[in-house]
Amino acid sequence: MKTRPLTSYLGQSAGSPSYGPDIRRVLTEVSHTPIDRSDVPVKPVRSVWQVVQNPERLVRPYVFKDAGGLKYFVNNLIDYQEKVQHHANIEIDHLTVVVSTSTKDLNSVTELDKELASFCDEIFEDITFFEDYAEKENERSNIFYK
Fold first, then answer.
1. Are residues 61 and 98 in contact, defined by beta-carbon separation less than 8 angstroms?
2. To 10 degrees, what angle do helices 111-145 and 67-84 make?
């Protein structure tokens, strides 16, 4: 089965007209295609949030290596939402979480949505960092004990 680089799913430009209506297609491709993670950076360098219309909202998929990272992300996001009283839509499909946020009273993206998006990126960056750190430590300990 052919693999596809993870960044090919996440690299569409902001406001891409094909992303909004086809989000289920993209998620289906992501969940049914083996992912080559070799091209994923150690830390996310930029945000890949999409601005989707009707109503205007920010949308971003996050793909995790395991259920532990996914649960940590979702639990922290739920705690944050309760703290600031601003809630996103969260869709989970296996190891992919899609976060969609807008200010529903205005049908628009506001500063609250941008702050929530930034929080999601920070949590994801932390998870990615610690997963990579754990992998490197495992590699080092395997070399040491051989």
1. yes
2. 150
Nearest to 29 by CA among 101, 93, 86, 104: 93
By three-state DSSP, how is residue 139 classified?
A: helix
Number of separate domains in the chain: 1
61: preceding bond cis by omega (within 30 degrees): no
CATH number of the CATH domain containing 41: 3.30.1360.20
The two tokens of residue 49 are 């949030």
Q: What three-state secondary structure class fits 56?
A: coil
Concatenating the DSSP letter of every residue in 24-35 gives HHHHHHHHHS-E
Q: pLDDT tens digit string along 88-101?
A: 999 999 999 999 99
Q: What backbone phi and psi angles, to 5 degrees, belong to 118?
A: -60, -40
* Bridge partners (DSSP) listed for residue 101: 58
For residue 54, give the amino acid letter: N
Asked if 31 contacts 88 with a C-beta cutoff of 8 angstroms, the reply is no
Q: Rounded to an integer, what distance in angstroms lies between the CA atom of residue 12 and that of residue 51?
A: 11
User: Residue 65 belongs to what domain range?
Assistant: 4-145
- Identify which has the larger pLDDT, 139 or 44: 139
pTM score: 0.63
